[in-house]
């Protein structure tokens, strides 16, 4: 009788554990789905960034979807003059119809495919933002027509006190995570130290390069210092966890050009490895620091959504 009770109790504990794991996985998948399908807002009904107050055409929620007919829709057209002629930017195919770009495909070294799947083209042959209308056409300040791919490394550690013990949040009954945040030089908002994937560059290389440039100021390092940085980053940026892959609700998005990213979490469980990094703002970043993870935080684009996914995956305070 006693043996049978022990067996039943072990079965109960096992099933309970499986249920908790499945529930956690479902919540994580739901959060990822929400981040990738929510109605975009930061690239709609606001002034276009760094464009002297250029205002987008107002797009009500019910008219965001391209499938909804809207004959009165007359968005303004804008491409930042600083984009023209840059090596990292496409030509203006509206004024140069003889130029053909291969959308939804690998165009030489440029990846014009979308993480969202196939995107539509309008009558002019221009890509249509898969998340709908934004109130402005053209490329804005983005270099590519269609998807502009970025990579966002989310580097985290556990917050500790002076004794080296993890800091526990009584309200949420969870430990507190910290992540490396940079203050963007263009808008002053806090974000991950990420950036664009260069033509022909692997995403894994982009993650390492952007972190080194913006959070460690590698561009100002001596050759010897740069070699040391590369070694440290190569050792740390190995066991990353993909948190998100898809559309970014970026304020620079337009009807014909938009941001997409791969966000990868690199977590230092003990804090020993990341302690070797001397954080120093560089490239496009004004400041860099460790920042506590929590629901009260406000970040650039929808980086906050990605951070929430990390917190839930690590079972940390949110």
From TrEMBL:
Residues 158-313 form the Nudix hydrolase domain. It comes from the Eukaryota. Transmembrane segments: none annotated. PROSITE patterns: NUDIX. GO terms for molecular function: ADP-ribose diphosphatase activity. InterPro entries: NUDIX_hydrolase-like_dom_sf, NUDIX_hydrolase_dom, NUDT9. This is Nudix hydrolase domain-containing protein. It comes from Opisthorchis felineus. The lineage of its organism: Eukaryota, Metazoa, Spiralia, Lophotrochozoa, Platyhelminthes.
């Amino acid at each position: 009788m006693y043996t049978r009770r022990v067996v039943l109790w072990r079965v109960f504990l096992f099933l309970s554990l499986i249920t908790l794991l499945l529930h956690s996985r479902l919540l994580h998948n739901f959060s990822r789905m929400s981040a990738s399908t929510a109605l975009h807002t930061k690239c709609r009904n606001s002034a276009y960034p760094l464009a002297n107050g250029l205002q987008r055409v107002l797009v009500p929620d019910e008219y965001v979807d391209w499938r909804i007919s809207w004959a009165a829709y007359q968005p303004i057209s804008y491409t930042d003059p600083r984009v023209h002629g840059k090596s990292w930017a496409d030509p203006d195919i509206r004024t140069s119809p003889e130029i053909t770009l291969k959308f939804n495909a690998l165009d030489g070294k440029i990846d014009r495919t979308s993480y969202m799947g196939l995107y539509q083209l309008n009558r002019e042959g221009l890509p249509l933002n898969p998340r709908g209308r934004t109130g402005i056409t053209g490329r804005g300040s983005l270099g590519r027509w269609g998807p502009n791919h970025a990579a966002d490394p989310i580097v985290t550690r556990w917050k500790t006190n002076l004794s080296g013990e993890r800091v526990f949040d009584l309200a949420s009954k969870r430990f507190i995570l910290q992540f490396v945040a940079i203050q963007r030089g263009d808008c002053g908002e806090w974000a991950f130290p990420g950036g664009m994937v260069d033509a022909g560059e692997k995403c894994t290389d982009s993650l390492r390069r952007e972190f080194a440039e913006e959070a460690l100021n590698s561009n100002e390092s001596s050759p010897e210092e740069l070699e040391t940085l590369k070694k440290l980053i190569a050792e740390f940026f190995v066991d990353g966890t993909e948190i998100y892959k898809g559309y970014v609700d970026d304020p620079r998005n337009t009807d014909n050009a938009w941001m997409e990213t791969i966000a990868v979490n690199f977590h230092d469980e003990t804090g020993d490895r990341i302690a070797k990094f001397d954080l120093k703002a560089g490239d496009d970043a004004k400041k860099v620091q460790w920042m506590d993870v929590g629901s009260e935080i406000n970040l650039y684009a929808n980086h906050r959504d990605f951070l929430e996914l990390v917190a839930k995956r690590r079972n940390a305070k949110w």
